[in-house]
Every structure is written in C-alpha cells, then in structure tokens.
C-alpha cells in the first residue's frame, strides 16, 4: 500500500485527510511539526510516495518543511489557508506539484483526487514532441513532476517511431512548428491507427490563435494550449484528458467483461471470435468451440441463495482461466454457461483429451463458499470441426452439451 505523508498541525484537516486517503487506498503517515516530518521522512524514506504539507507549522512558519521534503526528493502538494499572488509564486518556485487552498470540503476532495491521479500517473507514458530542446525540457520536467513516465521526440517523424516502439503511450504533447513533420501532420498520422479514446493528444504553440486551436482539434487533437501556459492550467488540462481516457477504458471494459466473473462477455466473444473464425475458414487455423455448463447449478441457488451461486460462478471462471491455454478464448455466455474457443487442438483425440482433463479438474476439486465447500461437476459439448458459420459451430456444441446432460451429466461430448 502506498504511503502518503500528511504534515498538518490542524487536527481537523489531519483527521479528515487521513480518513479520506485511507478510503482511497493509501496509508497515511501523519506529522504536525517539522521535527516530526523529518523523523517520518527518515523512518519511511523509501516508502513515501508523496507529501501533503501545510505551509505554516509551529516550528516552520515560512514553509521550511517543504524545502526539506524537496531536498530529499519527496514530491510535495501544498495544502494551505494562506494565499496571495506572492505566496503562489513562491510556492511554485519551490517545484511543488500543486497547491490547494483550504476553503471548503471540496478542497479536501480535490487533494484526495489529486493524490490518486498522481499515483496512477506512475503507470502512464507521455510523449513530448518539440524541436526546441529548451521548450521540450520544460514540458518534460513538468510531466515528470506530475509523476508521468516521459518520453521525448524532436519532431513528428521521430515521435511516430517512439509510438510504434512504445505500444502503451497514452498522452502526446506536441508543438506545431517542427521540421520534417509539423504538429498537424503528426496528429493526423497518429489518428490513422490510434483514436482519441486510446491516445490523448494536446497541441501547444506560441503562435496561438482561435484558428490554430480549431485546426489542431480538427486534425484530431483532444485539446490545445497556447504558449506560454500557466503550470496550473497545463496540469489541469493534462489531468482532464488522462481522466477521460481512463473513464473510456472503464466503459470499454464494462461493455466487454462480465462483471461477476471477470472473463469476456458474449458480446466481446463474438467481436473477437468472428475474425478468428474468418481466418480459420481461410485455412490459417483450426477452431474448436466448446460450451460448458455447471451441473445442477439451480439447486445451489435454490438451497443456498444467489450470493453463494455467484461465488461458485466466479470460482468456476477462475479455474477455467487457470486451465485454458493462452491462445484460447474464454467467455461467459450467460447464467452458468461458459464458452471456449480453442485454436489448433490436435486431431486424433486432441479435443477429447483436452476437455476430459478439464472435466476431471472440476470433479476432483472442491469450491470454497460462505456456505462451506462444494463439489461440482460440469458438462461439456464440443464442436471440433469447421462449419459454415461460427453460429453453426456454437449451435452444434450446444446440441452436444444437452446430449451430455441427458446422458447423466459430468460428461464430455465431442463431435465426430
């Protein structure tokens, strides 16, 4: 668990911040004085992720605690009730990440959300594209201050090489005027293979105008900033765009992953299985479809309740994930039924052996639930030869599954 140092001499703010950060999944180390903060930084030197510092402490009235933290390499967010333009300039000159004014409960929420954003930024790759080494260095330093993994490129051509090499770049900050390939051309090239919901692109330029901003957006940028920009505006824009990417990713996952079991849902299965089946029809692979059903699952729900039934479903999915090969695709089709698309299972009984071992695994394993351990069995229907359509293969597997049920359950039926 990530540790956050909260240096705050007001008990109310210290208590509320501690509670809110704990709910967000962080462990809080508290200090009310500079002396206590020094001790905490020494004790937890390699464990602290971030410090939240009040500007004025009983033994450090001029922000000396912030200087100590920064000298130790600890990222700092200032949380203070003292504000003026001079104070703002002085705080930002200390290279703190951000400052938040103690005004109302929303300021506490802002701090907690900021901590979460900074923690997640540690896994986000950002690419800065600018032919000016000075301007590029300034932006790179800001993004590193905000805990991003930062990559650099001197022009659009180099940027495309970086994106091609680093498959998980999520954020691109690009200038407009560059040799070989300008910002507009770069964005259009990025958008040919990376839509807005996969990579956020923010255009920047010192030749700012409403026309330039519109051209950036029309070229495919998510946002635009005029140079020179305020640090706070830059960070807020970046934060907003990365937040949107995460929200869209969560929506995509919700649309493709079964919430209860964590495996693909039926819709996602068809989206991925369709192209695989088409490739198999062209002779590039062999597809096997299996439908799996938990035997007597209704009795579990009726006797022990749906909560226990949900535990059983989740455990069955976990066992299937553990057992299937990396090249296989597993999905929950609904209720207690799962589907496996297996590629290139060997002939001469390969499918029989594969799915018989799967059946035996369940027969020999007990599942732990709140109502005790359960022994369950599964029935499997397997279509092991190509048909005209994917639906026809699924239909045959379904017919074989019900044949296994009629034959007494806990059986595997494979097409001849």
Describe this structure in words.
The protein is built from 15 helices and 17 strands. Helix 9 links the parallel strand 9 and strand 10. Helix 2 runs parallel beside helix 3 and helix 12 packs antiparallel against helix 13. The two termini are about 55 Å apart. The chain is an alpha/beta fold and about 425 residues long. It has three domains: about 120 residues, Rossmann fold (3-Layer(aba) Sandwich), CATH 3.40.50; about 130 residues, 3-Layer(aba) Sandwich (Rossmann fold), CATH 3.40.50.2300; about 150 residues, Reverse transcriptase/Diguanylate cyclase domain (Alpha-Beta Plaits, 2-Layer Sandwich). The strands form four sheets. The chain has a five-stranded parallel sheet, sandwiched between helices. A five-stranded parallel sheet has the order 7-6-8-9-10, sandwiched between helices. A five-stranded mixed sheet has the order 12-13-11-16-17, with helices on both faces. The chain is about 50% helix and about 20% strand.
DSSP summary: helix tally: 15
> At CATH's second level, what is the architecture of the largest domain?
2-Layer Sandwich
Overall tally of structural domains: 3
Helix content: 40-55%
Principal-axis shape equals flat
End-to-end separation: 54 Å
- CATH C-level class of the largest domain is Alpha Beta
Structural class: alpha/beta
Report mean pLDDT, rounded to a whole number: 91
CATH topology annotation of the largest domain: Alpha-Beta Plaits
């Amino acid at each position: 668990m990530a540790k956050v140092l909260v240096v705050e001499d007001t008990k109310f703010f210290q208590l509320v911040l501690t509670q809110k950060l704990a709910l967000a999944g962080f462990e809080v180390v508290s200090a009310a004085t500079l002396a206590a903060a020094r001790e905490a930084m020494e004790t937890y030197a390699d464990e602290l992720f971030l410090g939240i510092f009040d500007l004025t402490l009983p033994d450090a009235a001029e922000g000396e605690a912030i200087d100590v933290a920064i000298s130790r390499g600890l990222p700092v967010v200032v949380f203070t009730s003292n504000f003026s333009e001079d104070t703002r300039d002085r705080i930002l000159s200390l290279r703190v990440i951000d400052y938040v004014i103690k005004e109302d409960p929303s300021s506490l929420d802002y701090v907690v959300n900021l901590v979460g954003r900074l923690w997640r930024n540690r896994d986000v790759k950002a690419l800065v594209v600018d032919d000016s080494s000075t301007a590029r260095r300034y932006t790179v330093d800001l993004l590193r201050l905000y805990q991003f993994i930062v990559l650099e490129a001197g022009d659009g051509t180099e940027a495309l090489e970086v994106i091609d090499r680093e498959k998980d770049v999520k954020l691109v900050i690009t200038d407009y005027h560059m040799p070989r390939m300008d910002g507009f051309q770069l964005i259009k090239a990025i958008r040919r293979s990376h839509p807005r919901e996969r990579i956020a692109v923010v255009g920047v330029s010192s030749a700012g105008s409403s026309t330039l901003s519109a051209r950036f957006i029309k070229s495919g940028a998510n946002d635009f900033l005029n140079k020179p920009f305020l640090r706070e505006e830059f960070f807020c824009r970046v934060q907003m765009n990365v937040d949107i990417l995460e929200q869209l990713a969560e929506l995509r996952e919700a649309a493709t992953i079964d919430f209860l079991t964590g495996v693909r849902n039926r819709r996602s299965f068809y989206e991925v299985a369709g192209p695989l089946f088409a490739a198999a029809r062209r002779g590039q692979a062999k597809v096997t479809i299996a439908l799996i059903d938990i035997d007597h699952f209704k009795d579990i729900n009726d006797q022990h309740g749906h909560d226990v039934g949900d535990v059983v479903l989740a455990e069955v999915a976990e066992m299937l994930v553990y057992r299937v090969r990396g090249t296989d695709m597993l999905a929950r089709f609904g209720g207690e039924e799962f589907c496996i698309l297996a590629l290139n299972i060997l002939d001469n009984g390969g499918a029989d052996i594969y799915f018989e071992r799967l059946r035996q695994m369940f027969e020999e394993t007990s599942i732990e639930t709140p109502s005790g351990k359960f022994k369950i069995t599964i029935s499997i229907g397997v279509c092991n030869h190509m048909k005209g359509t994917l639906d026809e293969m699924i239909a045959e597997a379904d017919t074989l599954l019900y044949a296994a049920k009629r034959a007494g359950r806990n059986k595997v039926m494979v097409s001849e």
